[in-house]
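Lab meeting, item 3. Inverse folding demo.
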Protein backbone atom coordinates (compact mmCIF):
# COMPACT_ATOMS: atom_id res chain seq x y z
CA UNK A 1 0.00 0.00 0.00
CA UNK A 2 0.96 3.64 -0.46
CA UNK A 3 0.82 6.01 2.49
CA UNK A 4 0.78 9.69 3.33
CA UNK A 5 2.01 10.65 6.79
CA UNK A 6 0.25 13.52 8.58
CA UNK A 7 2.57 15.35 10.95
CA UNK A 8 6.33 15.53 10.50
CA UNK A 9 7.68 15.66 14.04
CA UNK A 10 9.93 13.13 15.75
CA UNK A 11 7.64 10.10 15.52
CA UNK A 12 7.28 10.50 11.74
CA UNK A 13 10.94 9.51 11.39
CA UNK A 14 10.16 6.23 13.16
CA UNK A 15 7.73 5.41 10.37
CA UNK A 16 10.19 6.52 7.69
CA UNK A 17 12.67 4.02 9.14
CA UNK A 18 10.01 1.31 9.44
CA UNK A 19 9.05 1.59 5.77
CA UNK A 20 12.62 0.78 4.78
CA UNK A 21 12.00 -2.70 6.19
CA UNK A 22 8.58 -3.21 4.57
CA UNK A 23 9.00 -4.29 0.92
CA UNK A 24 5.97 -3.33 -1.14
CA UNK A 25 4.91 -0.56 1.21
CA UNK A 26 5.67 3.00 0.18
CA UNK A 27 5.54 6.40 1.83
CA UNK A 28 4.62 8.81 -0.98
CA UNK A 29 3.84 12.11 0.74
CA UNK A 30 3.34 14.07 3.91
CA UNK A 31 1.07 16.75 5.32
CA UNK A 32 2.71 19.33 7.55
CA UNK A 33 1.48 22.48 9.26
CA UNK A 34 5.05 23.79 9.19
CA UNK A 35 5.71 22.87 5.57
CA UNK A 36 8.66 20.65 6.46
CA UNK A 37 9.15 17.01 5.54
CA UNK A 38 10.35 14.38 8.02
CA UNK A 39 14.08 15.00 8.45
CA UNK A 40 14.84 11.47 7.23
CA UNK A 41 12.67 11.78 4.09
CA UNK A 42 13.30 15.17 2.46
CA UNK A 43 12.22 13.77 -0.92
CA UNK A 44 8.54 13.40 0.04
CA UNK A 45 5.84 15.51 -1.55
CA UNK A 46 4.74 17.86 1.23
CA UNK A 47 1.39 19.66 1.25
CA UNK A 48 -0.84 21.52 3.68
CA UNK A 49 -3.74 19.05 3.37
CA UNK A 50 -4.48 15.54 2.19
CA UNK A 51 -6.64 16.85 -0.64
CA UNK A 52 -3.58 18.59 -2.13
CA UNK A 53 -1.44 15.45 -2.36
CA UNK A 54 -0.84 14.63 -6.02
CA UNK A 55 0.62 11.14 -5.64
CA UNK A 56 -1.90 8.27 -5.48
CA UNK A 57 -2.22 6.80 -1.99
CA UNK A 58 -4.30 4.24 -0.09
CA UNK A 59 -3.99 5.19 3.56
CA UNK A 60 -2.76 7.81 6.01
CA UNK A 61 -0.65 7.53 9.14
CA UNK A 62 -1.44 10.28 11.63
CA UNK A 63 1.47 11.47 13.78
CA UNK A 64 0.24 15.00 14.52
CA UNK A 65 -0.40 16.25 18.09
CA UNK A 66 -3.04 14.31 20.03
CA UNK A 67 -5.98 16.68 19.77
CA UNK A 68 -5.65 17.02 15.99
CA UNK A 69 -6.04 13.33 15.14
CA UNK A 70 -9.76 13.50 14.46
CA UNK A 71 -9.33 16.31 11.91
CA UNK A 72 -7.04 14.28 9.68
CA UNK A 73 -9.02 11.06 10.17
CA UNK A 74 -12.22 12.74 9.03
CA UNK A 75 -10.45 14.29 6.04
CA UNK A 76 -8.94 10.93 5.09
CA UNK A 77 -12.30 9.17 5.38
CA UNK A 78 -13.89 11.75 3.08
CA UNK A 79 -11.25 10.81 0.49
CA UNK A 80 -11.90 7.08 1.00
CA UNK A 81 -8.50 6.46 2.62
CA UNK A 82 -7.78 4.04 5.47
CA UNK A 83 -6.45 5.50 8.73
CA UNK A 84 -3.72 4.37 11.13
CA UNK A 85 -3.22 6.86 13.94
CA UNK A 86 -0.61 7.22 16.64
CA UNK A 87 -1.84 7.03 20.22
CA UNK A 88 -4.10 8.26 21.62
CA UNK A 89 -7.07 7.95 19.27
CA UNK A 90 -7.91 11.52 20.29
CA UNK A 91 -8.42 13.45 23.53
CA UNK A 92 -12.22 13.83 23.85
CA UNK A 93 -15.15 11.46 23.49
CA UNK A 94 -16.78 13.83 20.99
CA UNK A 95 -13.72 13.94 18.73
CA UNK A 96 -13.32 10.16 18.82
CA UNK A 97 -16.98 9.57 18.04
CA UNK A 98 -16.77 11.89 15.03
CA UNK A 99 -13.72 10.19 13.55
CA UNK A 100 -15.14 6.72 14.16
CA UNK A 101 -18.45 7.69 12.52
CA UNK A 102 -16.65 9.20 9.51
CA UNK A 103 -14.53 6.09 8.94
CA UNK A 104 -17.48 3.75 9.38
CA UNK A 105 -19.58 5.76 6.92
CA UNK A 106 -16.75 5.70 4.37
CA UNK A 107 -16.11 1.97 4.88
CA UNK A 108 -12.43 2.47 5.72
CA UNK A 109 -10.34 0.95 8.51
CA UNK A 110 -9.42 2.99 11.57
CA UNK A 111 -6.63 1.51 13.68
CA UNK A 112 -4.43 2.78 16.52
CA UNK A 113 -0.67 2.17 16.73
CA UNK A 114 -0.54 0.47 20.12
CA UNK A 115 2.61 -1.35 19.06
CA UNK A 116 3.41 -2.69 22.53
CA UNK A 117 0.67 -5.26 21.92
CA UNK A 118 3.03 -6.97 19.47
CA UNK A 119 5.72 -7.70 22.09
CA UNK A 120 5.98 -11.51 22.47
CA UNK A 121 5.72 -11.51 26.27
CA UNK A 122 2.64 -9.30 26.20
CA UNK A 123 1.04 -11.66 23.68
CA UNK A 124 1.89 -14.69 25.87
CA UNK A 125 0.42 -13.11 29.02
CA UNK A 126 -2.71 -12.05 27.13
CA UNK A 127 -3.31 -15.65 25.98
CA UNK A 128 -2.88 -17.00 29.52
CA UNK A 129 -5.30 -14.42 30.93
CA UNK A 130 -7.89 -15.18 28.24
CA UNK A 131 -7.59 -18.90 29.00
CA UNK A 132 -7.98 -18.34 32.74
CA UNK A 133 -4.69 -20.16 33.28
CA UNK A 134 -3.63 -17.86 36.12
CA UNK A 135 -6.82 -18.22 38.12
CA UNK A 136 -8.56 -15.23 39.62
CA UNK A 137 -6.66 -11.94 39.29
CA UNK A 138 -6.50 -10.18 42.65
CA UNK A 139 -4.47 -7.06 41.90
CA UNK A 140 -2.44 -5.34 39.20
CA UNK A 141 -0.12 -2.39 39.82
CA UNK A 142 1.17 -0.41 36.84
CA UNK A 143 4.04 2.01 37.38
CA UNK A 144 5.07 4.48 34.67
CA UNK A 145 7.63 6.60 36.48
CA UNK A 146 9.29 8.51 33.65
CA UNK A 147 11.34 11.68 33.28
CA UNK A 148 11.03 14.63 30.89
CA UNK A 149 12.88 17.88 31.41
CA UNK A 150 11.42 21.35 30.95
CA UNK A 151 13.06 21.62 27.54
CA UNK A 152 10.84 18.76 26.34
CA UNK A 153 7.71 20.69 27.27
CA UNK A 154 9.12 23.93 25.87
CA UNK A 155 9.82 22.27 22.50
CA UNK A 156 6.18 22.72 21.41
CA UNK A 157 3.68 25.32 22.57
CA UNK A 158 1.01 22.63 22.87
CA UNK A 159 3.05 20.31 25.11
CA UNK A 160 1.78 19.92 28.65
CA UNK A 161 -1.52 21.64 27.82
CA UNK A 162 -5.12 20.45 27.89
CA UNK A 163 -6.26 21.86 24.55
CA UNK A 164 -4.00 19.82 22.22
CA UNK A 165 -1.96 17.35 24.29
CA UNK A 166 -5.08 16.51 26.29
CA UNK A 167 -3.16 16.12 29.55
CA UNK A 168 0.19 15.10 30.96
CA UNK A 169 1.85 11.71 31.38
CA UNK A 170 -1.38 9.69 31.65
CA UNK A 171 -2.51 10.51 28.10
CA UNK A 172 0.95 11.05 26.66
CA UNK A 173 3.79 8.86 27.95
CA UNK A 174 1.71 6.19 29.75
CA UNK A 175 -1.10 5.72 27.22
CA UNK A 176 0.55 2.64 25.65
CA UNK A 177 0.85 1.02 29.08
CA UNK A 178 -2.72 1.94 29.97
CA UNK A 179 -3.89 0.30 26.74
CA UNK A 180 -2.04 -2.87 27.77
CA UNK A 181 -3.66 -2.72 31.21
CA UNK A 182 -7.13 -2.62 29.61
CA UNK A 183 -6.16 -5.29 27.06
CA UNK A 184 -5.17 -7.60 29.90
CA UNK A 185 -7.77 -6.82 32.56
CA UNK A 186 -10.65 -4.90 30.97
CA UNK A 187 -12.18 -1.61 32.00
CA UNK A 188 -12.62 -0.87 35.71
CA UNK A 189 -15.99 0.00 37.22
CA UNK A 190 -14.68 2.54 39.72
CA UNK A 191 -11.89 5.08 39.35
CA UNK A 192 -10.47 7.53 41.87
CA UNK A 193 -7.32 9.57 41.38
CA UNK A 194 -5.02 12.29 42.63
CA UNK A 195 -3.05 14.53 40.25
CA UNK A 196 -0.37 17.16 40.79
CA UNK A 197 2.08 19.42 38.98
CA UNK A 198 5.45 19.48 40.70
CA UNK A 199 8.60 19.66 38.57
CA UNK A 200 7.52 21.51 35.43
CA UNK A 201 5.99 24.78 34.32
CA UNK A 202 3.01 23.22 32.52
CA UNK A 203 -0.77 23.40 32.64
CA UNK A 204 -1.45 19.69 33.14
CA UNK A 205 -0.34 17.11 35.70
CA UNK A 206 3.22 15.82 35.69
CA UNK A 207 2.51 13.15 38.33
CA UNK A 208 -0.57 11.28 39.41
CA UNK A 209 -1.97 8.06 40.83
CA UNK A 210 -5.23 6.23 40.16
CA UNK A 211 -6.99 3.53 42.18
CA UNK A 212 -9.20 1.20 40.13
CA UNK A 213 -11.83 -1.39 41.09
CA UNK A 214 -13.06 -3.98 38.58
CA UNK A 215 -16.36 -5.85 38.63
CA UNK A 216 -14.40 -9.06 39.32
CA UNK A 217 -13.22 -7.48 42.56
CA UNK A 218 -9.72 -6.94 41.19
CA UNK A 219 -7.96 -3.84 42.54
CA UNK A 220 -5.63 -1.96 40.21
CA UNK A 221 -3.34 1.02 40.54
CA UNK A 222 -1.73 3.19 37.89
CA UNK A 223 1.00 5.74 38.57
CA UNK A 224 2.08 8.01 35.72
CA UNK A 225 4.82 10.60 36.05
CA UNK A 226 7.36 12.69 34.18
CA UNK A 227 8.95 13.80 37.47
CA UNK A 228 10.86 10.61 38.29
CA UNK A 229 14.41 11.56 37.39
CA UNK A 230 16.27 9.91 35.68
CA UNK A 231 13.31 7.78 34.47
CA UNK A 232 12.55 4.15 35.25
CA UNK A 233 11.29 1.21 33.15
CA UNK A 234 7.53 0.78 33.04
CA UNK A 235 6.61 -1.98 35.48
CA UNK A 236 3.51 -4.15 35.94
CA UNK A 237 3.09 -6.30 39.04
CA UNK A 238 0.27 -8.86 39.10
CA UNK A 239 -1.03 -10.87 42.05
CA UNK A 240 -3.31 -13.75 41.16
CA UNK A 241 -4.73 -17.00 42.47
CA UNK A 242 -1.77 -19.07 41.23
CA UNK A 243 1.00 -16.70 42.29
CA UNK A 244 2.63 -13.52 41.12
CA UNK A 245 4.53 -12.19 38.15
CA UNK A 246 6.11 -8.92 37.11
CA UNK A 247 6.79 -7.32 33.76
CA UNK A 248 9.31 -4.62 32.97
CA UNK A 249 9.17 -2.71 29.67
CA UNK A 250 6.78 -5.34 28.27
CA UNK A 251 9.06 -8.26 29.16
CA UNK A 252 8.44 -10.84 31.86
CA UNK A 253 10.83 -10.01 34.69
CA UNK A 254 9.81 -12.49 37.40
CA UNK A 255 7.46 -15.49 37.17
CA UNK A 256 6.17 -17.32 40.23
CA UNK A 257 3.00 -18.98 38.95
CA UNK A 258 2.14 -22.49 40.17
CA UNK A 259 1.88 -25.07 37.40
CA UNK A 260 2.40 -22.63 34.52
CA UNK A 261 5.82 -22.52 32.85
CA UNK A 262 7.33 -19.09 32.34
CA UNK A 263 6.26 -18.08 28.80
CA UNK A 264 8.94 -15.40 28.41
CA UNK A 265 10.27 -15.17 24.89
CA UNK A 266 13.95 -15.83 24.30
CA UNK A 267 13.95 -13.11 21.66
CA UNK A 268 12.33 -9.77 22.43
CA UNK A 269 12.53 -6.39 20.71
CA UNK A 270 15.11 -4.01 22.07
CA UNK A 271 13.29 -1.76 24.57
CA UNK A 272 12.97 1.91 23.80
CA UNK A 273 14.22 4.30 26.44
CA UNK A 274 10.72 5.74 26.74
CA UNK A 275 11.34 6.41 30.41
CA UNK A 276 13.78 9.17 29.47
CA UNK A 277 13.16 10.01 25.82
CA UNK A 278 10.46 9.91 23.17
CA UNK A 279 12.91 8.54 20.60
CA UNK A 280 12.23 5.04 19.20
CA UNK A 281 15.31 2.99 18.35
CA UNK A 282 13.66 -0.29 17.31
CA UNK A 283 11.03 -0.02 14.55
CA UNK A 284 10.13 -3.73 14.46
CA UNK A 285 6.93 -3.21 16.43
CA UNK A 286 5.78 -0.39 14.15
CA UNK A 287 6.52 -2.64 11.19
CA UNK A 288 4.34 -5.32 12.79
CA UNK A 289 1.52 -2.81 13.28
CA UNK A 290 1.67 -1.76 9.62
CA UNK A 291 1.67 -5.39 8.43
CA UNK A 292 -1.32 -6.12 10.69
CA UNK A 293 -3.10 -2.98 9.40
CA UNK A 294 -2.67 -4.08 5.79
CA UNK A 295 -3.85 -7.59 6.61
CA UNK A 296 -6.97 -6.21 8.30
CA UNK A 297 -7.74 -4.14 5.21
CA UNK A 298 -7.11 -7.04 2.82
CA UNK A 299 -9.30 -9.44 4.79
CA UNK A 300 -11.81 -6.87 6.11
CA UNK A 301 -11.12 -8.01 9.67
CA UNK A 302 -10.36 -6.31 12.95
CA UNK A 303 -6.83 -4.86 13.33
CA UNK A 304 -4.73 -5.54 16.41
CA UNK A 305 -5.96 -2.32 18.03
CA UNK A 306 -9.09 -0.86 16.48
CA UNK A 307 -11.03 2.32 17.14
CA UNK A 308 -12.94 0.74 20.03
CA UNK A 309 -9.65 -0.11 21.75
CA UNK A 310 -8.38 3.42 21.27
CA UNK A 311 -11.64 4.86 22.55
CA UNK A 312 -11.48 2.76 25.73
CA UNK A 313 -7.93 3.85 26.50
CA UNK A 314 -8.82 7.54 26.22
CA UNK A 315 -12.06 6.98 28.15
CA UNK A 316 -10.18 5.50 31.11
CA UNK A 317 -7.65 8.35 31.04
CA UNK A 318 -10.47 10.90 30.96
CA UNK A 319 -12.01 9.17 33.98
CA UNK A 320 -8.66 9.42 35.77
CA UNK A 321 -8.65 13.13 34.88
CA UNK A 322 -12.16 13.52 36.30
CA UNK A 323 -13.48 14.61 32.90
CA UNK A 324 -16.09 11.83 32.68
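The presenter then showed the designed sequence:
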Amino acid sequence: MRYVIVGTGNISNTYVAAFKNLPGCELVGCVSRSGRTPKDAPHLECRASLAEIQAPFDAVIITSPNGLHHISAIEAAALGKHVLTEKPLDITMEAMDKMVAACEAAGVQLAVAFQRRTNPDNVAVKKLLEAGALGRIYAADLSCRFWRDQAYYDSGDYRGGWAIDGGGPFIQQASHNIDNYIWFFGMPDQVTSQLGTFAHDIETEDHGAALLRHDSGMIGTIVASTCARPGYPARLEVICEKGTFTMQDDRIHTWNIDGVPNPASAVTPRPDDGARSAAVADTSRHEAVIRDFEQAIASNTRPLADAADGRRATELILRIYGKL
